[in-house]
Amino acid sequence: MRVLALLDGTLADPEAPLMRADDLSVTRGDGIFETILVVARDAREMGPHLDRLERSGALLDIPTPPRAVWERAAQAVIDAWPWETDREMALKLVCSRGVDGGDGTPTGFAMGSPVGPDTLRKRRDGLVAVTLDRGFAPDLKERAPWLLLSAKTLSYAVNMAALREAERRGADEVIFTATDGSVLEGPTSAVVLARGKTLITPPPSTGILPGTTQGALFRAAEKAGWETKVEPFDQAELRTADGVWMTSSVRLVTPVHTLDGTPIKADPELHRELTGLYESLY
Amino acid sequence: MRVLALLDGTLADPEAPLMRADDLSVTRGDGIFETILVVARDAREMGPHLDRLERSGALLDIPTPPRAVWERAAQAVIDAWPWETDREMALKLVCSRGVDGGDGTPTGFAMGSPVGPDTLRKRRDGLVAVTLDRGFAPDLKERAPWLLLSAKTLSYAVNMAALREAERRGADEVIFTATDGSVLEGPTSAVVLARGKTLITPPPSTGILPGTTQGALFRAAEKAGWETKVEPFDQAELRTADGVWMTSSVRLVTPVHTLDGTPIKADPELHRELTGLYESLY
Questions:
Q1: CA nearest A161: which of B144, B259, B240?
Q2: Do B63 and B53 meet the contact criterion of CB atoms below 8 Å apart?
Q3: CA-CA distance, B112 to B11, in Å (whole number)?
Q4: What is the pLDDT of residues A16-30, one digit of tens each?
Q5: Which family does it belong to (chains A, B) (predicted)?
Q6: Domain A3-115: which CATH number of 3.30.390.50, 3.30.470.10, 3.40.50.720, 3.40.50.300
Q7: pLDDT in tens, A106-135
Q8: How far is B40 from chain A (nearest CA, A)?
Q9: Could you say which of B17, B28, B144 has the minimum Cβ distance to residue A19?
Q10: CATH fold for domain A121-279
């Protein structure tokens, strides 16, 4: 069950074709997107998501439609969602560069989908993760902006392939590492670890996406007296941390309990505390 | 003017929507493709292109439809193309993983487009190229297959961004280099250099795509007494070579005359010889 709205704010049939064969989203993965969690009509972190969509658009030279366009399309999806039966919705905003050889007008849509049982299970039971080499040096972003390292593009084939590799290894999730062994991010999530009363996540300078859910969690944790740090750390620290989480809009703050086949510290009490902090924002 | 055929071999309106919003080609760039040059109804290197499509499908775990399906769709496009006014056509075969959460059936199409005036100009006048760091070590492919380095995926946002970077630098094309300074490929082409009567191109072990046009050129050159080598070379060799070409189905064998702002050797006689060898195959 999906709900689809066009950029003019009208609804469309999600099972009918929408994009032309020569749309650059189809042929080149040439576009950007955001995924936003909507709980009981409340679109969480809408501002930071739209900020990031704009930053991605700037990195790709896509003239992203104005925020009001996205807000209107998002609202149309939210208004049409069956909230009485489905309390959560994953809202995807997609902006393509448009038709190949066209006039440069971006194409796009807003689409609501249910949060699947697999995500709910992972939120509840935690994750088995594996580390995988992303192949990049942690200082590559600055010197090679054409690699679009911190843009959230529609070119996610590698992210999806990494998740299939995890599955082959009996795992749910991937923690990408840089060539120096430092931790980067997941294919569709940020990585957060706890050491005492400090939360740590790697810096965007490594080419990772700044996480909206990670940002929200840090905001809530700071208010509650936690220290937060945005700094590089080696993958070895994932094993000695007091807890490791993967955060994303839809999975929320999901604990990792097993890494590369070995259990790691996953304190249910600490997890409840962090989840409580995050939820206190909404 | 485009011609579109579906995988059942029927024609469709290329200006009508074709892909659903939740098709994984649209949202994840999760699919594969090939671009084939068709000249006066002759689809050049169809066999090697279909071989490569199958290899890409295997690397992405996409159950690519059988060759007969692609051949039928390609033929439908060829039969409908206005050959009397347009002697060349770029034929794109696109295979997406299908609808997100669907039954796993790939979606796809065959689409014919004109060869643009820009390509014709580059074939004639040659290219201004710049080298850009691709950020990968040349031995990454073997140890990190999840990075899909030698698959021709629909996730081409970085390739397109690199071409925009070239344009910003006043250039037409990009030659990607690995972290050790060795030459890789172009965003949509292979790199070939000549040294005496030897043609050289980098090996697929570096994670580049094996070029179909490069393969055809080497086949023709060998028959004519040239030596051919598939081996790594440093970017410095681009400046000392007797000639540098970027090859692809649609651009053919296009000479590079300027690299990173400096003219390089571009002998028109040698270029005519190589182009003649390549054309002798068809």
A1: B144
A2: no
A3: 11
A4: 999 999 999 999 999
A5: Belongs to the class-IV pyridoxal-phosphate-dependent aminotransferase family.
A6: 3.30.470.10
A7: 999 999 999 999 999 999 999 999 999 999
A8: 23
A9: B17
A10: D-amino Acid Aminotransferase; Chain A, domain 2 (3.20.10)
